[in-house]
Automatic annotation (TrEMBL):
Protein name in the entry: 1,8-cineole synthase 2
Organism encoding this protein: Cardamine amara subsp. amara
Residues making up the signal peptide according to the UniProt record: none
Lineage: superkingdom: Eukaryota
GO BP: any one term: isoprenoid biosynthetic process
InterPro entries assigned: Isoprenoid_synthase_dom_sf, Terpene_synth_N_sf, Terpene_synthase-like, Terpenoid_cyclase/PrenylTrfase
Source lineage: Eukaryota, Viridiplantae, Streptophyta, Embryophyta, Tracheophyta
Amino acid sequence: MAIHALETPFHWRMRRLETRWYIDAYEKKHDMNHVLIKFAKIDFNIVQTAHQEDLKYVSRWWKETCLCNQLPFVRDRLLN
């Protein structure tokens, strides 16, 4: 964990992306709490599902507006 902490400063990290790393690291410990791991995975999956639903909604909205056809200088994608 110390090496991981030195790679990127804590305040630069995206906490939700780091969650998966922490789940995997905690799961390797011999004294882990199985209930805590189970709840962490459920929470991670719920948040991921919410993000996917938001992305579907925004993507559908973007296609329906047809702004990329009306504004030639606009990129026709939501994410980089």
